[in-house]
Design goal:
Chain lengths: 351, 275
């Protein structure tokens, strides 16, 4: 399948954005509002039981917003009639693409909620009624909804591909776990990098220690899980399917069938879109680069950051760059290595 | 609505005879011509007279050579059906003659449970409840091309010029068209075929001509393992007559002439010609 830039950019960038939002949402749902990490942060004002939002989370929210929005916009670039994109929200009963669109828009609702909470805290008592800000349950539920919507959106994205039976490499049980794992990994790499930025605030030393241990450890775990999924996936798609041209025309009995005349002398939409071949020649090397850059480098850097505290910031940012490069390459291979059954009509072999 | 309708009783579709198709592309050309001006057109091409012409056709004709048997000439081959039960060959295990070349027209099979319809996010792709024809509403299509990915048969082509997906309509604007003669209310490809290799009818009706033809000739569906349940059927090439002789190419035996029975003139002619 042709690796179209707008789709690769969309899935990687919005995946990272949703991964980040998932983590931000989880932080809101589990830890932050009740000041569980550190009671010293204290309530935002005397009457409130809710803590001030750590600036790392605010920055992460904003980064997630940018990535998710940029990804969604780039996905429109792939459409033949982008001005009608709103119609894609209508068929959620049957279509994963439609479900993805609905989930993506719904995710903006709790995301906006968190933004309002942050905004309200900037000038207590003015923009957002204190009643809402003080309601710890409300804050936690908003966070949980953001995390859930982010996971659901990535789940839908992955299923767009996983449900396509004619493309064997996509119609695979590991596609959905892989998309979720890569989203979580890229989100975690982003959060780790953002957490090393000088923060103006509210995050006292005690909490910084927690972050600086928690984040690299999570990076290591996610990198290992992602690499394991991808290695297993590659092993599975390398199994020959045994499908042949004789089979797709329904005459298996003919044995070997060779296409001696194509229906058209020049390329057509199908051969252009589904007859992409370049990657397979270099797939071994590209896979190795993907493993080294995408998973090994961030994991090793995270390990270093745990063992040698100090230049954690540099490690985190290099880890982020390497990781994103690896995930881009992974997504490129995901398209380029996948073969569509229709190419057998054109005499392709052995998909 | 891209959810599929409850099973249609009428299943309009095509039956294509691979025995008689000669690969002349008349169906493909007639299709392009009708649909370029029909209600689902136009079908614009880019670079029409340049070196890289490209555009949408609803029908594409492939030509294959069966190489398993050697030179690709008419000859004898042993058909072995694949062991996989879901992919069984329509041709049974037997010694029979197969043609060296197969011409294979490929177009939408108007599947009963096609994923091209269910993956569509906009409702542009739909299957008609009344006759099972699968269509694209070009006013709703956003050109996401997911449906083309979902079709294993390559029946959908995206028009870069128009920004929407296009596909075979089974000439829905001909078959119900009361301004046409009754005899012309057939898909353009069917009417154009010089060898009558294409047949149109209701495959949901066991008594229809096309259903009888399928039953008689062992018509089969393409790649049933995907579960799309194509409506169109293909008729396999017939075993060639007299399998034992076609392969050996026997020379005609020299005729024996009894010259003693002939007139002197003819005997002289025979002598001269036999030199
Ligand atoms: S042949 Fe392809 S386009 Fe036609 S109905 Fe079946 S899946 Fe859809
Ligand atoms: S290209 Fe058009 S018809 Fe096909 S799935 Fe997308 S919106 Fe539906």
């Amino acid at each position: 399948m042709r690796p179209t830039f707008s789709i690769i950019f969309f899935t990687v960038i919005s995946g990272a954005g949703y991964g980040l939002w998932m983590l931000v949402g989880l932080a809101f749902a589990l830890a932050w509002p009740g000041c569980l990490l550190d009671a010293e942060i204290g309530p935002v004002d005397a009457q409130s039981s809710v803590c001030g939002m750590p600036s790392t989370l605010a920055v992460a929210w904003a980064a997630g917003f940018l990535l998710v929005s940029a990804g969604l916009l780039s996905s429109l670039a792939h459409l033949g009639q982008p001005q009608r994109a709103w119609r894609a929200l209508s068929q959620w009963r049957s279509s994963w693409l439609s479900r993805e669109g609905v989930a993506a828009l719904l995710a903006y609702v709790p995301a906006t909620g968190l933004f309002l909470i942050w905004l309200g805290q900037q000038s207590p008592g003015h923009l957002v009624p204190a009643l809402l800000l003080e309601n710890e349950t409300l804050v936690r539920v908003t966070g949980a909804l953001l995390a859930a919507a982010s996971i659901v959106t990535v789940f839908c994205t992955a299923n767009i591909y996983a449900c396509l039976k004619p493309i064997r490499a996509w119609n695979n049980r590991l596609v959905v776990p892989a998309y979720l794992a890569f989203a979580a990994l890229s989100g975690m790499l982003l959060l780790w990098a953002l957490a090393t930025l000088p923060s103006r605030d509210l995050v006292p030393a005690a909490q910084e220690t927690v972050w600086s241990v928690l984040l690299p450890s999570a990076v290591i775990v996610l990198a290992v899980i992602s690499a394991a999924i991808k290695l297993t996936y590659w092993k599975q798609i390398d199994q020959p399917s045994g499908l042949r041209t004789a089979h797709v025309i329904g005459l298996d009995g003919l044995g070997n069938v060779r296409s001696f005349e194509q229906p058209h002398t020049q390329e057509n939409y199908l051969t252009h879109e589904m007859g992409f071949r370049i990657a397979r020649k270099h797939s071994r090397k590209l896979r190795l680069i993907c493993l080294l850059a995408g998973f090994a480098t961030p994991a090793i850097l995270a390990l270093l950051a745990l063992l040698v505290p100090g230049p954690g910031g540099v490690a985190a940012w290099i880890g982020l760059l390497a990781g994103m490069f690896g995930i881009f390459l992974e997504r490129w291979l995901f398209f380029a290595e996948a073969r569509h059954a229709v190419m057998l009509y054109y005499g392709a072999h052995g998909d | 609505m891209t959810s599929l309708p409850a099973a249609a009783t009428r299943k309009l579709g095509l039956v294509i005879d691979l025995d008689t198709c000669v690969g002349c592309h008349a169906c493909a050309v007639a299709c392009k011509e009708w649909n370029d001006g029909g209600s689902f057109g136009p079908l614009p091409d880019k670079d029409t007279h340049g070196p890289e012409p490209e555009g949408v056709w609803f029908n594409r004709v492939h030509s294959y050579e069966a190489t398993g048997m050697g030179s690709g000439e008419w000859g004898m081959a042993t058909a072995k059906s694949e062991a996989k039960s879901s992919c069984t060959s329509p041709i049974p295990d037997s010694q029979f003659l197969i043609p060296g070349t197969i011409h294979f027209p490929r177009s939408c099979l108007h599947c009963e449970t096609p994923a091209c319809v269910t993956v569509c996010p906009t409702g542009a792709s739909y299957k008609r409840a009344e006759d099972g024809i699968v269509l694209v509403d070009e006013d709703k299509c956003i050109g996401c091309q997911l449906c083309a990915w979902a079709c294993p048969y390559g029946a959908r082509e995206f028009s870069a010029q128009r920004g929407v997906m296009q596909k075979c309509t089974l000439c829905v604007d001909r078959i119900y068209n009361e301004t046409l003669d009754e005899a012309d209310r057939q898909p353009a490809c069917v009417l154009a075929c010089p060898t009558r290799a294409r047949h149109f009818g209701d495959l949901g009706d066991a008594q229809s001509d096309v259903s009888k033809l399928v039953a008689e000739r062992g018509g089969y569906a393409l790649m049933p393992e995907f579960g799309y349940q194509p409506v169109n059927r293909y008729l396999p090439p017939r075993p060639r007559r007299d399998a034992s002789r076609a392969n050996s190419h026997p020379q005609p035996a020299a005729e024996a002439i009894d010259t003693t029975q002939m007139s002197p003139l003819l005997r002289w002619v025979d002598r001269v010609l036999s030199r």
